[in-house]
Amino acid sequence: MPKVKxxxxxxxxxxxxxxxxxxxxxxxMREAENDPxxxxxxxxxxxxxxKIEHQKSRYIFDLYHRRKEISKELYEFCLDQRYADKNLIxxxxxxxxxxxxxxxxxxxxxxxxxxxxxxxxxxxxxxxxVIECVHCGCRGCASxx
Length: 145
Ligand SMILES: [Zn+2]
Ligand SMILES: [Zn+2]
Prior knowledge:
Blueprint: H1 15-34, H2 42-66, H3 72-80, H4 86-92
Helix pairs in contact: 1-2
The structure holds zinc ion (2 copies).
């Protein structure tokens, strides 16, 4: 059954410009979610999903905060409709978190050692040069890397 587009949602002006990109990312997300995970470690199966989440939020964030191509109304609409992750974007505005990959990587309880995920450690401070964190497969997201 095709999903019926609800007419209750009122799309702000400019929506038609960003809709194709968002739809494309949503489709990719669905694909990643339905992907049979055979052979992959359980955590690895989630990586593409985190990555696409990140991409969507980054897209909206850049359009509004950097490129200033969308209105505040449209920006807030995207946050409300969860096309972008409000909490993640809030972090990107803080110094040192501009490139943060996902919220899990800064939650102390999720880590065996200390307070942050390996991917948050700047390249020049860590022993291994190439890493992939277990949470989202991030290869390093410290500011300045
Ligand atoms: Zn990271
Ligand atoms: Zn991480």
